[in-house]
Amino acid sequence: MGKIALVVEFKLKPGQRDGFIARVRQHGAICLESEPGCLQFDVLVPNDTSDHVILYEVYADQAALDAHGETPRMAEYRRDTQDMLIERNRTTCDLLGD
Fold first, then answer.
1. Were both Cys, which of 47, 71, 84, 95 would link to 3 (CB 3.0–4.6 Å)?
2. 0.90 surpassed by pTM
3. Does the domain at residues 4-94 carry the CATH identifier 3.30.70.100?
């Protein structure tokens, strides 16, 4: 089993980007510190729109990604951000080449 990349694209409600970015950066830092299987957690802000944020995360394997999704911290993060979102699209990918 190889590394897994997770790409999550968010469309945010107007005026929510700064608050969302602050919360997601906090979440990412905690994931990197406390989850050995979380290898990378990047927050991307597209230049051409003010209402989208993209996350690029890399996990050691599928088990690490599954464990990430089941943490109480993840449920708390989702509760904290749900009212900021219009839409969330999640894509899981096999990371080739490593």
1. 95
2. yes
3. yes
